[in-house]
Design goal:
alpha+beta, five-stranded antiparallel beta sheet, 26 helices, globular, six-stranded mixed beta sheet
Length: 650
């Protein structure tokens, strides 16, 4: 009878967000992924164990001998505690002897000796989590404190190059072992993650031989397939490696570029000048754009994970690997479409020197969570591309089932529904009744993005982003891919309280669903929310609205307390003059009117807010001669809120 051991982390985000430097967050995140996906499985295999779950902050392994399980447990705890002294974690105090993982989870205190009174394998860890949520660290006072985390004693000295008043200076910093390792890990480059592309002379010769171009690209595809050695890398590194290979498949010239291009180390690295140096105005020399911070995680995982865990032990690892591979697939596809070869070639053309930086950096990628930062002008494209990639993958799974009748894919709704019924038969009637009430919803994600300055404290961004993402998931019923957002032009903007907006939104409204995610066999009524994709199309359609008119309309909406009839009268008064105005199309567009012809102010404001986000296409035009929308005499003129008062940048 085998023995089961489990370990889980808590407060992972607190560990990653120890301070607000990009390199620190990305480096700590990468090290944690390596710990859970590489180091702990290696220890398990060394003691003849089998990995069942490794990802999302949880690790479970099975051993045939208790002595091997205890030895592996001791080494795992040593590795976790010494590498991450600040990380809170819980581990089984004694391996559980059971026929299967399900039996181990259901084990009672009578079945086990010398353990706290927590029934079941997972319940024991949760009990530990509730009982202790802290850590202690002491060191001799004469030791130098780490200058980054200001918690641990410094063990290394790093010489960093910093930019001060336009001049590069070398700065000496004392770092602890954790911050030092995070800095080293944050400097990882493509040639280190995909050495076969850059170290093989045979491949490089193929690249230079036009007749063998297709053969080289096929080799790239084969070497980055799921059967290659790259499966031994962490989820985060697999995403980068496959993104690199995808760009080389798009354009073979990217082989040389990806060997030298850098992954951003600091937030400012993401912003490239929009013009070559000789054509660049003085005002753009030190121009730092706003960044977009992306948060997303997969919907309904709490309903799916118990069904997956209820399968046979020898199937568990392959099930979670399949889930992870889908996560990697859709992320790589979205990145390769948003930041394609043409985008990078254009950035290199405008850079002052070679190499240059990517316009994005992944901070967290593992389990079902994705957090990344990018230049704001790519965020709307990335939103649409990630949603499209997931929908294509979902349709591919359903299509394969329809063709050959297979229903063994762990992500398909039919497979999950079938396994849910089987799972309920093993539960107590009361518990089974609760499970049966949960409908199996399509595979999708909830997301949010925040547009803000690079100096905004990241813990503030993270807190707001998590709240927005939660609203996106709950207010759409988790039925499909959804999005919420905020433009933090100032830290405590009141814009959302002063103006109505239409968000959160489905990215593509599912057929037969309204914004609340309720089943509805009829088409979505015209007065329901538009999809995010529709808003992006409307932004392109109405991109000719001048920024002066945009700000005036917002100001007038505040002046009339968002009264749709009064605002429409003021706009029509100006529009009735001799020539069309830049906003004339809004008054005729049916998307901005209800069934009675009244303006839908919340849609106009949502359009305006999204139109202020920088994009890769032509920006809103500016006109210095636009006539003002005047209010009747005696009415107060209102100040434009910060969210829509931002300067419109290309």
């Amino acid at each position: 009878m085998p023995y089961f051991f489990s370990l889980q982390y808590s407060a992972i985000q607190k560990t990653i967000l120890r301070h607000h430097r990009l390199w620190s967050m990305a480096g700590i995140s990468a090290l944690l992924s390596e710990l859970n996906e590489i180091q702990l499985p290696e220890i398990t295999k060394r003691f003849n164990g089998d990995v069942l779950v490794a990802g999302g902050g949880k690790f479970t392994a099975r051993f045939q001998e208790e002595s091997e399980a205890l030895a592996a447990r001791k080494e795992m705890i040593f590795v976790v505690a010494t590498n991450f002294p600040m990380l809170e974690f819980q581990a089984s105090q004694k391996p559980v002897r059971a026929d299967s993982l399900q039996d181990a989870k259901a084990a009672t205190t009578e079945d086990r000796n010398n353990i706290p009174p927590y029934p079941g394998l997972v319940a024991e860890l949760n009990g530990q989590k509730r009982a202790f949520r802290g850590g202690g660290l002491t060191f001799n006072p004469h030791m130098i404190l780490c200058e980054e985390c200001c918690v641990c004693p410094a063990t290394k000295v790093k010489h960093l190059t910093v930019l001060e008043k336009g001049k590069r200076k070398t700065q000496k910093k004392h770092l602890c072992c954790t911050c030092s390792r995070a800095m080293e890990e944050a400097r990882i480059q493509f040639k280190e993650m995909t050495p076969f592309l850059f170290s093989s002379e045979k491949n490089r010769n193929k690249k230079k031989a036009p007749g063998e171009k297709n053969g080289f690209l096929k080799a790239v595809a084969d070497d980055t397939s799921r059967t290659s050695s790259y499966r031994q890398q962490t989820t985060l590194k697999q995403i980068y490696a496959r993104y690199c290979a995808e760009l080389i498949r798009q354009d073979v010239r990217m082989l040389d570029i990806m060997e030298t291009i850098k992954i951003p180390f600091n937030f400012e690295d993401m912003f490239a000048p929009s013009l070559p140096k000789q054509d660049r105005p003085v005002s753009q020399e030190n121009n730092r754009g706003s960044m977009a911070v992306w948060f997303s995680d997969i919907n309904n995982m709490n309903g799916k994970v118990p069904i997956w865990l209820a399968q046979k032990d020898n199937k568990l690892y392959s099930i979670f690997e399949a889930v992870k591979n889908v996560y990697i697939d859709i992320t790589v596809t979205a990145l390769a479409r948003t930041f394609d070869a043409q985008v990078l070639l254009e950035l290199l053309k405008n850079s002052d020197s070679h190499p240059s930086f990517l316009p994005f950096r992944i901070i967290i990628a593992g389990g079902d969570d994705l957090c990344m930062v990018m230049d704001e002008k790519y965020i709307m494209d990335f939103t649409l591309n990630l949603s499209q990639a997931l929908c294509e993958n979902r349709e591919n799974v359903d299509g394969r089932e329809n063709v050959d009748g297979r229903e063994d894919h762990c992500l398909s709704t039919s497979w999950l529904a079938m396994k849910q019924k089987e799972y309920c038969k093993t539960l107590e009637p009361e518990h089974a009744a609760k499970i049966k009430t949960r409908s199996i919803k399509p595979y999708g994600f909830g997301a949010a993005f925040i547009i803000t300055d690079t100096h905004t404290p990241f813990h503030t961004i993270h807190e707001v982003g998590e709240e927005l993402m939660s609203r996106a998931k709950t207010e759409t019923g988790r039925w499909d891919n959804s999005i919420n957002w905020r433009i933090m032009a100032e830290e405590h903007s009141l814009t959302d309280h002063l103006l109505p907006f239409e968000k959160p939104l489905f990215i593509d409204t599912p057929p037969g669903m309204d914004i609340r995610g309720e089943e509805n066999p009829q088409p979505v009524p015209a007065d329901k929310h538009l999809s995010f994709k529709t808003y992006v199309d409307l932004c392109n359609r109405h991109k000719g609205i001048s920024s002066s008119h945009l700000y005036q309309i917002v100001e007038q909406a505040l002046a009339v307390n968002c009264d749709a009839d009064l605002l429409k009268k003021r706009l029509m008064r100006l529009d009735s003059q001799e020539r069309d105005k830049s906003f004339s199309g809004l008054l005729r567009d049916e998307h901005f009117q209800d069934t009675k012809g009244r303006l839908k102010i919340e849609r106009i404001m949502t359009l305006f807010e999204l139109s202020t986000i920088g994009s890769t296409t032509e920006s809103t035009t500016e006109s210095a001669t636009e006539p003002a929308i005047s209010a009747p005499a005696g009415e107060e003129q209102h100040h434009i809120p910060a969210t829509v008062e931002r300067e419109v940048r290309p």
